[in-house]
Amino acid sequence: MIWINQVSNLASATIIVDETQPNDIKRALESVLANASLDAPILRSSKTGERVSLVNAFVYVVNTAGSLFQDVTAASPGKPVQLNVEYDKDDDHFVIDTDARPVRVRYIVFIGLLQIKTTTIPLIEVTGYRNVQTNTSISEVASFAPMDLLGSKTSLQLHRIAETGEIFLGANIAEDNLNES
Question: Residue 130: pLDDT band by 50, 70, 90 thresholds?
Fold first, then answer.
């Protein structure tokens, strides 16, 4: 099985706020931004209160744009992108909390690289389940070698139900991952 993964790598982000901010607010914002990495949850949603990082915001923008990966192939080194995102809704935007007060984000300029990465996952077993009395097939199962999926070793299985032709995807998380928590 070939596992295809769309990868959104954020290289940099420029946050733009109102230029009319007083100097003490600008200094407080600069202090927060100077110590923050791209994956630090510095953006707070005005709508939900959820905190997200610039990386999370970039991935969200890429995923909701729809067609950014359309011309990216696994054979290419990737597609450089610059996404200029305006947060102009009064009821749904980001703020950055500072020692002085929250500062509204007006725009973020994201610069990143979109890539398609493929991984070949070896087939390790094919099994079938049959009705013993009638010898008719109930289902067939293809099991694949464990792979890293969201930080856990996970084995995938494809189950095909003979009667309907439906195919189900099963996932088993390796027991050592469960014991680490």
Answer: very high
Around 122, how many Cα atoms within 13 Å sit in the side-chain half-sphere? 4
Neighbours of 91 (CB within 10 A): 6
| Residue written as token pair 């791209």 | 38
Tokens of 158: 């494809």
The whole-angstrom separation of Cα 67 and Cα 6 is 12
Angle at 149 between CA 50 and CA 61, to 5 degrees: 40
Distances in Å between the Cα of 181 and the Cα atoms of 60, 147, 178 are 27, 19, 6
The pLDDT-based confidence of 165 (bands split at 50, 70, 90) is very high
> Could you please report the per-residue DSSP string of the chain?
-EEEEEEEEEEEEEEEE-TT--HHHHHHHHHHHHT--TTS--EEETTT--EE-HHHHHHHHHHHH--TTTT--TTS--EEEEEEEE--BTTB-EEEE-SS-EEEEEEEEEEEEEEEEEEE--EEEEEEEE-TTT--EEEEEEEE--EEETTEEEEEEEEEETTT--EEEEEEE-HHHHHH-
Phi, psi for 11 (deg, rounded to 5): -95, -40
For residue 103, the one-letter residue type is V
Query: What's the token pair of residue 27?
Result: 């200094």
